[in-house]
Specification:
Blueprint: H1 4-9, H2 11-20, H3 27-58, H4 66-97, E1 118-123, H5 135-141, E2 145-146, H6 148-154, E3 160-161, H7 163-182, E4 186-189, E5 193-194, H8 196-202, E6 213-215, E7 220-222, H9 227-231, E8 238-240, E9 246-255, E10 274-284, H10 288-308, E11 313-317, E12 329-337, E13 342-351, H11 355-360, E14 363-365, E15 371-372, E16 375-384, H12 386-395, E17 402-403, H13 406-409, E18 417-418
Parallel strand pairs: 4-9, 8-14
Antiparallel strand pairs: 1-11, 2-3, 5-7, 6-7, 9-10, 10-16, 11-12, 12-13, 13-16, 14-15, 17-18
Helix pairs in contact: 3-4, 5-12
Length: about 425
Amino acid sequence: MLDIKYVRENPDLVRDAIVKKGLNVDLDQVLELDVSSRGLNARLQTLQAERNAMSRRTGPAPVGDGGQREAAREIGERVSVLKQELADVTDKLRALQLLLPTSPAADAPIGPDADSNVVVRTWGDPPPPDPRRDHVDIATANNWLDLKRVAKISGSRSYIVKNDLLRLEMALHAAALDRLSADGFTIMSAPALVKEECLVGTGHFPAGREDIYDLPRDGLFLAGTAEVAINSLYAGETLDHSELPLLFAGISPCFRREAGSAGRDVRGLLRVHQFWKVEQFVFCEADVAASDALHVRILENAESLMRDLQLPYRVVACSTGDMGAGKYRMHDIEAWMPSLNTYRETHSCSSLLDWQSRRTNTRYKDRSGALRFPYTLNNTAIATPRVLAAFLEIHWRPDGSVAIPSYLQKFMHGATKIEGKSRL
């Protein structure tokens, strides 16, 4: 959420961000509601001052002084009406404020969608396309995956991983947590069940509701990332600058409806409704340079893990139309998928400045004692099963086994490969 004073003083910058991000937000209405809100608030303060002055001059109205009682009653009624009008305008203004975007970084690619993303770097030598490398065929042949029977239980875009593939999945998350713990991150479990205000806090609401599973009987929702819970850890609290940056690595089950993904590649493990993810999340001081340095750090954490897993990938700078309303800067990591002969997104790294902390009213005292809103960042460390799909296809061998890179072997009880029978 943007500071309304900033919006009022920089309408051209906000309008430019709305255009660059392809959003449908009526900035003129925001500005009109802001004027109305300030006008109503001024009138309310004047009336309240008038009522207080009357009380100081005369004290309690004596018995029989109907004129004074009537004047006090009229002022009270006008105050009540103005308070309701102000509350209505404030609610409308906040609803629109929640939709206003952060201005993207000056070096962010400008474009309407992912087709405008710019490749920053690549790593590894992608193997050529090979029909034998399809992750579904590999996993099914080795009795590691069940897509048919699970459909009877959970419907489409569900999966069951078994035997060594499950061990591999757990090893990937253990490796990510190990890596981040060594880098000073607090590793933690994060709840998937969250309140509505937590999703408002991250910016998933009010836009994006169609992608979230809801539990109306309980007033709860199933989060699609640990970011949702961690972002609200300090909601309404005031931190001290000495506590920053706060570095978290949250592991959680994640749930997404994947609404609007019809026609996109949904084969096997590539686009599912439930998955596991280790998410990096950072609170830092309200300083762009500090945020940019942390952006590089958390992106490198994910890249270094991909390199140790020997998964060829590329990093792309996301365009203004692909990065979402709240994001100042965004990069994706895309893993090579031989069966598709292309790269597919497996990680997303975002800087959001104070857009989220204003929504949760998370603040800190800076070195001068002034209250500030911290900047937030997030990045995937590892997400399965999509990374499993890339892993199977990259490390498949013609004898049907799947090789385990040396870095991961310590998390796999020393196994150098997995094959049809569970041997760990």
